[in-house]
Amino acid sequence: MDDAVLSRRSLFAAGAVGLAVPAIGAAVSWNAGAAHAGATRKVTIYAEALPGGLFGYGLAPGQATVPGPLLEIYEGDTLEITLVNTTNQRLSIHAHGVDYSTSSDGSPLHASYNNPGETRTYVWRSREMFAAAGRRFMPGSAGYWHYHDHAMGTDHGTGGVAKGLYGGLIVRRRGDILPDRQFTVVFHDMTINNRMAPNTPIFEANLGERVEWVAIGHGNLFHTFHLHAHRWADNRTGMLESISDPSPTIDNKDLNPGSSFGFQVLAGEGVGPGAWMYHCHVQNHSDGGMSGIFLVRNADGSMPPGAEEAIHRFQGHTHTTTSQSHDDHGGHGA
Amino acid sequence: MDDAVLSRRSLFAAGAVGLAVPAIGAAVSWNAGAAHAGATRKVTIYAEALPGGLFGYGLAPGQATVPGPLLEIYEGDTLEITLVNTTNQRLSIHAHGVDYSTSSDGSPLHASYNNPGETRTYVWRSREMFAAAGRRFMPGSAGYWHYHDHAMGTDHGTGGVAKGLYGGLIVRRRGDILPDRQFTVVFHDMTINNRMAPNTPIFEANLGERVEWVAIGHGNLFHTFHLHAHRWADNRTGMLESISDPSPTIDNKDLNPGSSFGFQVLAGEGVGPGAWMYHCHVQNHSDGGMSGIFLVRNADGSMPPGAEEAIHRFQGHTHTTTSQSHDDHGGHGA
Amino acid sequence: MDDAVLSRRSLFAAGAVGLAVPAIGAAVSWNAGAAHAGATRKVTIYAEALPGGLFGYGLAPGQATVPGPLLEIYEGDTLEITLVNTTNQRLSIHAHGVDYSTSSDGSPLHASYNNPGETRTYVWRSREMFAAAGRRFMPGSAGYWHYHDHAMGTDHGTGGVAKGLYGGLIVRRRGDILPDRQFTVVFHDMTINNRMAPNTPIFEANLGERVEWVAIGHGNLFHTFHLHAHRWADNRTGMLESISDPSPTIDNKDLNPGSSFGFQVLAGEGVGPGAWMYHCHVQNHSDGGMSGIFLVRNADGSMPPGAEEAIHRFQGHTHTTTSQSHDDHGGHGA
């Protein structure tokens, strides 16, 4: 790691009522380092085999997760990733939204991958918008992006993506509002983060906390991401950027392979705490297991009335399941 | 009903040339009550079984339609819906875009549904945008939304949605331009409003009238909504919100399950009257029956040259139909 | 042709390293005539049968291509198209985005098509935005649109679209930045421009050139268009229209039947020259052949290091192909 401030936020923790929820997320951000622009951030990522035929990226040996760690930089920063391939498969890391030369493309087209056991460095650069002509600007790198394998199984990384080699990448513009909590949600074939209900993530926040969702699509199917009782502007940040921002406000958005978006909501704002649903709105996908819980606790972290019952209903939920071989139906977490 | 002005607009009427078109729409709006903000509007909705295995929502007993009535409020208003379940099925009403507590979520997760024969009240609140930080705002409730069953058949209301329990919901921002006509178009599996060509709705307007389209997606398939000879800005209102509004102008838009959008056009503006097509642009969907007519009459309401011939061609139209059991192929309306 | 300046840009040419690439594009634009508004532009288009069961539109007899020529006008212009049907099939030309009367709709609904051997004129008009109410405007015609057959095979032109009768149409707003190069990319069922890898187009530009992409969706499947190492604002032009433009920046976008979008990038800007990939990000589509090369040469037109090797890898690429009968698997061009 470099000398910048590093925070590893465990996105999940055993709740006050003793729910067994998986610790499936970690994050690396250098928000505190934002004062000095154009810094180079270095991180080592370990690609590892996981139980159940899955693979994951992690920030330390033995800590790979599905999805991988949420990476976060500011426009102007460079991210230098040393990818350690601890597996017996060819794999890589390919990023959306940032700048890289062909050698960091992560694709077999450019022989840009790690052979089994190999360590290789990938460099991702980012930049601010710059003037085009008139009042126009060529866009900078800011966005809710993602990264994924582009070399396992096929030249497009279909095998790696299918088995969990993906994660979120945020490039912030200076002045962006920072969240209290961050969730990465990957709609991938019939799964959410390679899990099916009732084993899908329970994302938790306290009433009024600013929660950032990073939504990513992968695989072969089309999806729509729906969140109950919360909504966002369909633009770069999810907030209206001025009183005359023309963006529509939505609570359901297409989330198709290779696409990603993000937004911030105030947990339970205007609706109160509770075990709110998020799900794919394609009916046979939600019925088949693409559904999860956004648990908004009381402001003091205690459980609101009815939330436990709702979660128990969810966990007892019968699905007309299209089962997936890489999904574990036993237990409620890892 | 409360003391606000209530208008029930019959969206369909037998045309001057004697077309048999279905009276499938009604609407409740409180536009005239917009002067006083934050009003509570009360409405009773009846969920009923319909011929052909369908179900519908209606504003009075025996008046259920597919889609249900178009509901319309202003940001700041509260909508209190007393849902009367006249059927022998568990069902509910779940809204997109508005605020509700878990007891009005409409989902079995929160035991928020009507048992057979049961009456239950659902409360939907709305609000204006409010300051976040800098010049940013958390978005308000304004939008082209929708409501649907979330309890019949499965925990996601798949059975109710499949059989017609859905409708449009508009939350307006103060100052929004009001239309002369409103159409609700639901792309749902291989149907439009649970009908297939040539029994799909013929939406009618006179040349130059301001027509508002509310488009909603449901079911298991992906769709694209295309309207001939008219176009709109891909933003909140469908109009450019200023001379520098960056939104693209489109005439074809993804309309996938759980998504909705709306826009206003001036009927026949720049192109003249005629029997204009609207259809899903997925080729085997349009060929299979997802096609209908937007009949723009002359300004005085008379039929323009060629429109009758076009409609007769449409009605004689042969489709390479993927038939749907819940579609009635007999007659041209109800 | 009328008296306006006509440029026919060959989008493809044999490269310096002797790559055999297809000359599949031509374009007609009247940019030089932009000074006088509201001009009427006349063009003759020939619909022709092509080898392999394909059909194409062309600007002269024997010059039909898939996709057809890229047409380009300014808001306010009228385009008068004389369509010569040299085939033995019923066919037409239907435009998105512009104004036309029912007789130029291009659909059998309005008997607006060419019988075999018939010549017929279609008139497309365009206009600037005009005031609605308050600061709002009804949108003008500016956009990245497209045209296609609407009469061959079915009333929706499914046969013509399947066999290659489609092309791009740009309506510019005065003041729009003009590109150095233009590429038309049609995602159509399992093909790109009715070709599959490794026979998909190699689009070429020199480092720093302003390249305009026009992306169009057709057929029965959903797609997502992804371009490596480049990105654009998800708005009308692909550039941020001001420092406070709220549009997200993306590098992957839904490209479904009937939809189109366009954007400009500076070739290799910030990433350098190279054989960059573009592909559908639906995994079994990219694996199945929906992948191609955006070859960014050095600024002087010479080949950058590694590009030839990458292209050779691409051409030797093994695909888990879902073969399509209308795709030619022999050779690397036409």
From TrEMBL, chains A, B, C:
GO terms for molecular function: copper ion binding; oxidoreductase activity. Keywords: Metal-binding, Oxidoreductase. It holds the Pfam family Cu-oxidase_3. Residues 65-174, 192-299 form the Plastocyanin-like domain. This is Multicopper oxidase. It comes from Actinoplanes philippinensis.
